[in-house]
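Sequence in, structure out. Go.
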Amino acid sequence: MAAARVVPGATKYLVDSRRYAAAAGPAHRFPFSARDALPRLGDASETTGFDRHYVFHTAWAARAVRALSPSEHYDIASSLYFASLVSAFVPVRFFDYRPAELALSNLSSEHADLLALPFASGSIQTLSCMHVVEHIGLGRYGEPIDPDGDLRAIAELKRVVAPGGSLLFVVPVGGRPRLMFNAHRIYSIPMVLDAFADAFALRELALIPDDPGDGDLVPDPPETLVLRQEYACACFRFEKHPAT
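Output:
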């Protein structure tokens, strides 16, 4: 006979529920009811867990927008949390292939296809596209299969940024570039730099390493650190070359 499987946290839940029911009694304004119980078995941790990529890259980008201080910021399909919070101090136009039904002051949410952006060339002063391009062309979100969809998306981002304008660009990186179909691509930092080298200068680079012991947002990460990564996050701030 197989041994009974113990669910982590189940014993604590049962003990706590009995203690609560005994302490509250049947006449309490919130009496204990097993019918309405919603067990949360893994939340009694010593620290609060969070997604390092999405907490740190959005914090990095919000600070960058604040420092750039544009009259209006455009975002293509990045985190809705980022767009909504930044709209508290800068008007934000958010675009996605699957637009969000989100209404806030200083924030608009509209449809756009990253492979054919509805903006004039050289028209946007500050633009962000973060943790997005690595998915394009893999079919994950209903878009057509295209092995070079990410490069086509990058070409569109490059096209619409104004001369002297800024692009905040975030993708997963590692020491070994690879495709994790159909979730995402993982790039090397040189791959990203090469994709923008013809029209943009790198103004800032920060790495969110796999191991928290290596830091949270590491500016100008050394190559030795980058090469150790499996699924890290790189934050690039590019500036488009002035028109000549």
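Check: The chain has two domains: 1-46, 52-240. Strands lie at 73-76, 92-96, 107-111, 124-130, 161-173, 178-180, 184-186, 200-208, 218-219, 232-240.
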